[in-house]
Design brief:
Layout: E1 8-15, H1 18-28, E2 32-39, E3 42-51, E4 60-65, E5 78-86, H2 91-100, E6 106-110, E7 113-119, E8 125-130, E9 152-159, H3 163-173, E10 177-181, E11 185-189, E12 197-201, E13 215-222, H4 225-237, E14 246-247, E15 251-257, E16 263-271, H5 296-302
Parallel strand pairs: 1-4, 5-8, 9-12, 13-16
Antiparallel strand pairs: 1-13, 2-3, 3-4, 5-9, 6-7, 7-8, 10-11, 11-12, 14-15, 15-16
Pfam families: Glyoxalase
InterPro entries: Extradiol_RC_dioxygenase (IPR052537), Glyas_Bleomycin-R_OHBP_Dase (IPR029068), Glyas_Fos-R_dOase_dom (IPR004360), VOC_core (IPR037523)
Protein name: Ring-cleaving dioxygenase
């Protein structure tokens, strides 16, 4: 059987202020902080994960909030726009809510769908679109009813410095199907119900630069550990140089950079975020891998305190 990803597992981006990051994604967008941990390669920096109630694959955006980070430039070699889906009929609610927090919005359309387009507090591009696919959220927070809440990713818009090569990788390596094209974009679809629609501008983009307000990488789903090993082999056989399999505690990961400059990861659905916390307590305390536990006090002393809090409109 042909190896195909179901779609996006997670997207990881850079930020600066940890508390402002929590305020935006939990306080304004209403996502659940499902894990607070650290960058395993730079333990002085948080690694924060936001998603649905369970941190399901296809809902998870993660951040490295580093107060001293430079400001990045969105451009080629990056995820240019992160797309979230909301239930049909919910876009008006979100337009009013975001305006209430002083967030500038534009309405755009693509392939017959209407989008709310805006930036987060760091300048990261986000859009909301109504779709019936995918289960409705069961998480309600900060005045957002569950029937209006973000379900998870709709997909992403990939900014490539070599669009034809990026599109080739989506089809020939990851198993997406091309489903539409217009004068500006090509659209690709995977088999999943969320995180499954990827749009690529047909025009090659100028290089962006990493930093706060930009995406570091996009991760694609592998259903289990055995399939993950098959993915590593397939990526290598396709002419790329995947990393060794890396244990990220909540999933295993491999990485490779495709020819359009975008860093791709393939991540396993298991074991998930309840691996080291009870489901009802996800994200409530700092979780560390075993090798960092002996220096927990030192790590905690170097991190800014954060809290998930309900915001009032106008508090942006």
């Amino acid at each position: 059987m042909k190896l195909q990803t179901a779609g996006i597992h997670h997207i990881t981006a850079f930020a600066r202020s940890p508390q402002e990051n929590v305020d935006f994604y939990a306080g304004i967008l209403g996502l659940r902080l499902v894990k607070r941990t650290i960058n395993f390669d730079a333990p002085e920096v948080y690694h924060l994960y936001f998603g649905d109630e369970n941190g399901s694959p296809g809902t998870i955006i993660t951040f490295f909030p580093w107060p001293d980070s430079r400001r990045g430039k969105v451009g080629g070699g990056q995820v240019g726009i992160t797309t979230y889906i909301v239930p049909p009929g919910a876009l008006g609610f979100w337009e009013n809510r975001l305006k209430g927090f002083g967030i500038s919005l534009t309405r755009t359309s693509r392939f017959g769908e209407d989008y709310l387009h805006f930036r987060d507090n760091e300048g990261l591009w986000i859009e909301l679109v109504e779709r019936g696919s995918g289960a409705n959220s069961t998480w309600s927070f900060g005045g957002i009813p569950a029937d209006k809440a973000i379900k998870g990713f709709g997909g992403a818009v990939l900014f490539s410095v070599h669009a034809k090569q990026t599109m080739r990788v989506l089809e020939e390596v990851l198993g997406f199907s091309k489903v539409a094209e217009n004068d500006s974009y090509a659209r690709f679809q995977a088999s999943g119900e969320i995180g499954n629609i990827i749009d690529v501008p047909l025009k090659d983009m100028e290089w962006g630069s990493g930093g706060a307000g930009t995406v570091h990488h996009i991760a694609w789903r592998a259903k289990d550990f055995d399939e993950h090993e098959e993915w590593q082999q397939k990526v290598g056989q396709s002419g790329f140089n995947p990393t060794q399999i890396i244990d990220r505690q909540y999933f295993n990961a491999i990485y490779f950079r495709e020819e359009g400059g975008i860093l791709f990861e393939i991540a396993t659905d298991p074991p998930g975020f309840a691996h080291d916390e009870e489901p009802e307590a996800l994200g409530e305390k700092l979780m560390l891998p075993s090798w960092f536990e002996p220096v927990r006090a030192q790590i905690e002393a170097n991190l800014e305190p954060i809290e998930v809090r309900v915001l009032k409109e106008g508090q942006k």
